[in-house]
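Look over this today:
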Amino acid sequence: MSGSHRIWAIVEKEMYVYFKYFHSEVSFAVLFPVFMIWTMGIGLGEAQIDWLPEGISYVAFIMPGLIMMTVISTGFFNTGFVMMFEKEYSDAFDGLIQTPVTTEEIALAKVLAGTLKSLINGLISMVVILVFVDLTVTASWIVLPLLFAACGFFFSCIGLAMGTWLKRGYQLGTLGNLLIFPLTFFGGLFFAVSELPENLQVVVNANPVTWMITAMREIVLYGSWEMGWEMLGILLICIPLYLGAWRLFRKLVVN
C-alpha cells in the first residue's frame, strides 16, 4: 500500500466517525451563525452605521466572519479533541502507531481530515446564512471551497499541535477560547479595520484571521477575485504550522 493510500485510509476512518455523528458535528455550524444574526438583528434593528459600505447591512457585513469562525473552530477543536481522545482513552492510537505508517502520514491525515470537516461545516454555514441574508451569488464564489480548505488546514495544524501537546481536554477548551475567540473578534468580524486607530490597525492587519475574513468579504460581499495576497499569506504560514505540529506528534510517538 502506497503512502497516499495509507493517508486516505486514515482520513476515511475519521470521516466515517464524523458522518456517524453528523447531527452533533454540524450543530455549531448551523446554530451559531443563526443565533448571532438573530441577536444582532434584534439588537441593532435599523441602526445607521456610518462606516458600513453603501448598500450593505451590518448583518451582511458580519456574515463572512461568522462563517469563517465556524471553519476555524471546526478545524481547531475537532482535530484537537480527536487527537486528545485517541491518545488518552482509545486503543486505536496505539494500534495505529504500531502499523507500518509513518508519523508524517498520520499527522498529515489528521490535518486533512480536519480540513475536510472545516470545508463541509463552512459550506453548511454558508447555505444556512443565505436563508437569512439576501446576497447576490457571483462567479467569484467558486473559490470559497478553496478558502475554507486553506483556513481549515491552518487551524487543523494548530489543533493537532495542541491536542498532541496538552494533557487534558479542558486545557484544549480553555486554550481554544483564549486563542480562537480573541483572534476572530480582533480579525474584523464585528468592525471595519479601517475604523481603528492607525497603530492598532498594524496589529490587527498582522492577524492571519483578519486575512481570512477580509478574503471572505471580498468574495461574498463584493464579488471580487482579489484575495491573492491573503491566500498566499495563509498558505505560507501553513507550512511551518504543519511542520511544527508534525514534530510535536513525532515526539509523542517516540516517547
